[in-house]
Design a protein that fits this description.
By secondary structure, the protein is of the alpha/beta class. The chain folds into 2 domains: 217 residues, ABC transporter transmembrane region fold (Up-down Bundle), CATH 1.20.1560; 246 residues, P-loop containing nucleotide triphosphate hydrolases (Rossmann fold), CATH 3.40.50.300. It contains 23 helices and 10 strands. The protein starts with a helix and ends with a helix.
Length: 609
């Protein structure tokens, strides 16, 4: 374990928060994460910096050559042509050395960057393949894409350019200043005359930048929140005439952000503009030539030496700007490294050391308890058996734990108490590939890939024939809709195939049916289906349950009246269990739910009649 890794283990990743101590902890974590992620490139970066030092030293040689040639040309007596040509030769060689060494340095760092990006992306993909499926329910695809593409890309400049360019930006003036001091210590001080003023002012300006940036970030978050709120509820807002109020909330957030930004940046811009004058090339040129004139008049230095020191001085602005830009880039890279490290540190799903194979198609929940955060328990002592070839329906109010319980079967998460068994084997003892050959699922939020409709269905069985795909689509009652697409089954999703929510759901169901897993979990599988499609889907599923165990979640009680058993959940506990008619006769919670459901549908019929 590297020193960076050891240090990182002692720093807990901090979430975004306005508290200064939280921000400081996050900044420390990000900094250590950056050190750890860049560790594989350190040796090559150091080698590249040595090449750049050589290039920087060679960059100063032309300045020295100008001074020496000037001395030769201005000296009394005949010009020593051989010495002049020798100096020219040395300058040309130095320029060649600078070009070759500088090019070699950048080549080394670019190769290091390519290797690092490839390594990080492979690590991320490997990590994603081992994360619990439940993690993807709480993490948007945008976040994953940002990590793989943007955050890894944020490290490019730091690895491929920053180290080499910083070395060059700092080393070239240092070598040049050393030469100035060699000529005369007064020339060395004159070359630096205005720089301390700029550095002092710039440091003062940045004294509370972190706190101010946090304020601005929170302002942007508030603006984003009001935009999302308005867009998400635009229909409701317009219906009830609240458009002005919704706009006002956004305007207030924008105005507050604008005022905070102007309050912070206004003085900074003015002071920074004034301070930047001290490192502008014309100002440095004027200061050095004016001071040099004084030195020459005083007899301390020769005019040609003033010319050499002035040429060195005008390299300083580029150095300051390069270092300043690299500092900004490093701060961005540290934030990206922190996000990448948090992803890489996400606990992976433990793999069994001695994988077992399910013996049949049964599912058993044995005193199951579950908590997402380790503090608030979502499921309490749930015991339930799903016999092979039966349909079990989970019903209950929102937040009762239906979806959580269902997703424990395909092991989206691991239970915190008890066990979930498939075919008599704890799902934690079944290899993922084997588990998903036994358990298929259709989620409430359908995910279709940007590939052909046929390939989307074929995901459940890569070697399926066209006839198999069509049969699955017909069973899911989506075949006729697919034939209406411009290219039929070859139509590409979101290009020439645009499905409604219910249609996308049926494509997803076709995919699960084609996979032909002996156990099927349907989480709100008919949530977006119209009544006719819902009845057709339920009929298709009923024909296909022979030898298959089905666990279905539905709010529409009418769709699960023929289930072999209905399980009623409330607050993470089983409160009723039985067949539809038996539960109605008991007159308890399910009977009341059914009464409310049928009354609602009767009212709907009266309204739409």
């Amino acid at each position: 374990m590297t020193a960076a890794q050891t240090a990182l283990d002692g720093v807990e990743p901090a979430p975004s928060a306005p508290a200064p101590e939280t921000a400081k902890r996050a900044a420390t974590y990000d900094k250590l994460a950056l050190q750890q992620l860049l560790a594989p490139t350190r040796s090559r970066t150091s080698r590249a910096q040595l090449y750049q030092l050589l290039a920087s030293a060679a960059t100063v040689v032309p300045f020295i050559g100008i001074v020496e040639i000037g001395r030769e040309l201005l000296a009394d007596g005949p010009v020593n042509a051989s010495r002049v040509w020798a100096i020219v030769a040395v300058v040309v060689i130095a320029l060649l050395v600078r070009t070759v060494a500088g090019g070699a340095a950048l080549t080394i760092t670019h190769y290091a960057d390519v290797d690092l990006q490839r390594s990080l992306r492979r690590r991320i993909v490997d990590k994603l393949s081992r994360l619990p499926l439940g993690w993807f329910n709480t993490t948007s695809s945008g976040e994953v894409r940002k990590a793989v593409q943007n955050d890894v890309g944020e490290l490019h400049f730091l690895v491929a350019h920053s180290a080499v360019e910083n070395t060059g930006a700092l080393a070239t003036p240092v070598f040049g200043l050393a030469y100035c001091f060699y000529l005369d210590w007064r020339l060395g001080l004159l070359a630096l005359a205005t720089v301390p003023l700029y550095v002092a002012i710039f440091t003062w300006l940045g004294r509370d930048s972190r706190t101010q940036m946090e304020r601005l970030n929170h302002g942007l978050e508030r603006i984003s929140a009001t935009i999302v709120e308005f867009i998400a509820g635009v229909s409701v807002v317009k219906t009830f005439g609240e458009t002005g109020k919704a706009h006002r909330r956004f305007a207030d957030a924008a105005d507050q952000f604008n005022d905070s930004f102007a309050e912070w940046m206004g003085p900074l811009v003015r002071v920074k503009a004034a301070s930047s004058i001290f490192i502008e090339t014309p100002v440095l040129l004027l200061a050095n030539l004016a001071g040099g004139y004084w030195f020459v008049r005083s007899g301390w230095v020769a005019p040609i030496e003033v010319l050499g020191s002035t040429l060195v001085a005008v390299t300083i602005p580029a150095a300051v700007l390069t270092v300043g830009y690299s500092t900004h880039i490093k701060r961005q890279a540290a934030s990206a490294a922190g996000r990448l490290q948090r992803l890489l540190d996400t606990p992976a799903l433990p793999m069994p050391t001695d994988p077992q194979v399910p013996r049949d198609n049964s599912v058993q929940f044995d005193a199951v308890g579950f908590s997402y955060d380790g503090k608030n328990t979502v499921l309490h002592d749930v015991s339930l058996t799903l016999a092979p070839g039966t349909i079990t329906a989970l019903v209950g109010p929102s937040g009762s734990g239906k979806s959580t319980l269902a997703t424990l079967v395909p092991r989206f998460h691991d239970v915190t108490a008890g066990a979930v068994r498939v075919g008599g084997v704890d799902v934690r003892e079944i290899a993922s590939r084997e588990l998903y050959r036994h358990v298929g699922f259709v989620l409430q939020d359908v995910a279709l890939l940007g590939i052909s409709v046929a390939d989307n269905i074929r995901l459940g069985k890569p070697d399926a024939t066209q006839q198999d795909i069509v049969a699955a689509a017909k069973a899911a009652h989506i075949h006729d809709r697919i034939l209406q697409l411009p290219n039929g089954y070859d139509s590409v999703v979101d290009v020439d195939a645009h499905f409604s929510g219910g249609e996308a759901q049926r494509v997803s169901i076709a995919r699960a049916l084609l996979a032909d897993t002996p156990i099927l979990v349907l989480d709100e599988a008919t949530a977006f289906a119209d009544p006719d499609s819902e009845a057709q889907i339920q009929a298709a599923l009923s024909r296909l349950i022979v030898g298959r165990t089905v666990l279905v979640i539905a709010h529409r009680l009418g769709s699960i009246v023929s289930a072999d058993q209905i399980v009623v959940l409330s607050d993470g506990r089983i409160v009723e269990q039985g067949r539809h008619q038996d539960l109605l006769e008991s007159g308890n919670r399910y009977a009341r739910m059914w009464q409310t459901y049928t009354a609602g549908h009767a009212t709907e019929w009266e309204v739409t009649r």
